[in-house]
Amino acid sequence: MTPQVYAWDGIRPVIDPAAFVHPAAILIGDVIVGAECYVGPGAVLRGDFGRVELKPGSNLQETCVCHAFPGKDVVVEEEGHVGHGAILHGCLIGRNALVGMNSVVMDEAVLGESAILGAQAFVKAGQTIPPRTMAVGSPAKVLRELTEEEIAWKRQGTGVYRQLALEARDRLTVAEPLSAVEAGRKRAEAPDYDPLVLERRGFSERP
């Protein structure tokens, strides 16, 4: 299955063979997707005013939007993790950093290496979130430094998406919906290598 790919002024997107880009994602122009990247359905990477680059091992989840500001590329460094619905505009997401769901990172902003940006945060133009810190709110403010355990936990979570990028091409297929739930229906399960699986089992059980 092929994503929706468009050239802009003769410049075509590049997708590494070891990446997974969902067929419902849209890539336009000067877009580079590195090895073991995951790009979810509904994501839009628009490289018409500048370059959008996902470096190896990073992920861009469902309905995210990336657009370069004139003269300012969008770059997600290695192991960058961009949660569902986030918007990146002319900014830099550092190595092993995490952008929370529905957050917005504006022009010339920098999210430092191994930093975590909380859900629905707003990083204003030109703002820098220092490495290894947690920032939340609108506008985003630094709460505290992260512990080594938190940084390792984040890296493990991004590893899940790296593995998903390798597995998705074989596990995702086009299908017709059923009209009723079949007997003994198989349940979708988080993979055993997801670091949240054991943690969640410690305080909750499926009803």
From TrEMBL:
The keyword Transferase applies. This is Transferase hexapeptide repeat family protein. The keyword Transferase applies. One of its GO terms (molecular function) is transferase activity. Keywords: Transferase. CDD domains: LbH_paaY_like. The lineage of its organism: Bacteria, Pseudomonadati, Pseudomonadota, Alphaproteobacteria, Rhodobacterales. PANTHER family: DYNACTIN SUBUNIT P25, GAMMA CARBONIC ANHYDRASE-LIKE 1, MITOCHONDRIAL-RELATED.
